[in-house]
Design goal:
The protein is built from twelve helices and twelve strands.
Length: about 325
């Protein structure tokens, strides 16, 4: 199986490590400093699934699609930040040489709305989404650490139910140590993650605390409860569903299992702020705000979190 990993950040390197360990032929598209480090040291993975080292000779790495070897891929895995979705879609659409009729694009990205950026350029039958609740951290340009894992990666389509062709990709990721499976309900999975991320990411970033600390205080629990209730109302008004019948049902699982399983994790939003990088808040609480405006709903708690993160972003971006 031939796979192009488009984006050499923490998620991209984490998924690439699984595919390499399972024997896939993998090429990685990343920034120049990441490419230099990968070519010098190979790809190193540490963390809760054990250590793995892929030598530089076992994979290809490129700074742009112009330099990618002249062949097609079975899968293109988009592992960029959500705010780069449109740029990634444009770039890929301009390089037909990496696609054949069966090539599938799988979006390993946070938030809601990423698939929409690809539809002007690719048929919806080619575009799939992945739901990831695994914590990846990149301590060096060629290293990825897996810090937490709450559930298997789920992959499916928002637009059709033809998902069996994804089985080989899921089997390869699973063989490489991270459980992965096909689902016909990826929209429900993505909205469940939105409920989780919208409550935890911005608040954890603003307060600079791990997820577990947020659940220990009645004050922060109250804020997260309200954020979750707003997200659930917007999701319902927009015609989507998740695996929970109510916000209250989700919150019970949230406090009883989801937060405890990831209690020591600090949000990617906080990591971006510390690194003085743009955050993905627009695809999280920002996406909720846009849908709320479309359906005439008020979401003051989501708006408050969004505005504070955007203020912090503006100071260093």
């Amino acid at each position: 199986m031939k796979v192009l990993v488009y984006g050499g950040g923490a998620v991209g390197l984490g998924i690439a490590s699984c595919l390499l360990k399972s024997g896939c032929r993998v090429d990685i598209l990343a920034r120049p400093n990441t490419i230099s480090s990968l070519r010098s040291h190979g790809l190193v993975r540490t963390g809760i699934f054990g250590e793995y080292h892929a030598p530089a000779s076992s994979f290809g790495c490129y700074q742009s699609l112009d330099g990618v070897r002249k062949n097609t891929y079975d899968y293109v895995l988009v592992c960029t930040k959500s705010f780069d979705s449109l740029a990634a879609a444009r770039d890929l659409s301009g390089h037909n040489s990496v696609f054949d009729d069966e090539t599938k694009i799988v979006l390993f990205q946070n938030g809601w709305g990423n698939a929409d950026a690809f539809l002007p350029f690719f048929a919806k039958e080619r575009v799939y989404n992945a739901r990831v609740i695994t914590g990846f951290h990149r301590p060096a340009n060629h290293k990825v650490q897996i810090t937490v894992h709450a559930d298997a990666i789920h992959i499916g389509s928002l637009f059709h139910s033809d998902v069996p062709p994804l089985e080989d990709l899921c089997e390869a990721v699973t063989k490489g140590d991270i459980p992965c499976k096909v689902t016909a309900e990826i929209a429900k999975d993505l909205w469940a993650k939105m409920l989780y991320n919208c409550a935890l990411n911005p608040l954890g970033a603003i307060l600079d605390v791990p997820y577990g600390a947020l659940a220990e205080s009645a004050f922060t629990r109250s804020i997260m409860d309200s954020i979750t209730e707003e997200v659930f109302d917007v999701m319902t008004a927009a015609g989507y569903q998740t695996h929970y019948k109510s916000a209250a049902e989700f919150l019970r699982l949230f406090y009883d299992k989801l937060v405890p399983d990831t209690a020591e994790h600090k949000s990617s939003t906080l990591r971006d702020i510390i690194a003085q990088k743009k955050t993905e808040i627009d695809a999280l609480n920002g996406a909720v705000i846009k849908l709320a405006q479309k359906h005439g709903l008020h979401v003051p708690h989501n708006l408050g979190m969004y505005n504070i993160i955007k203020f912090i972003e503006a100071r260093h971006c």
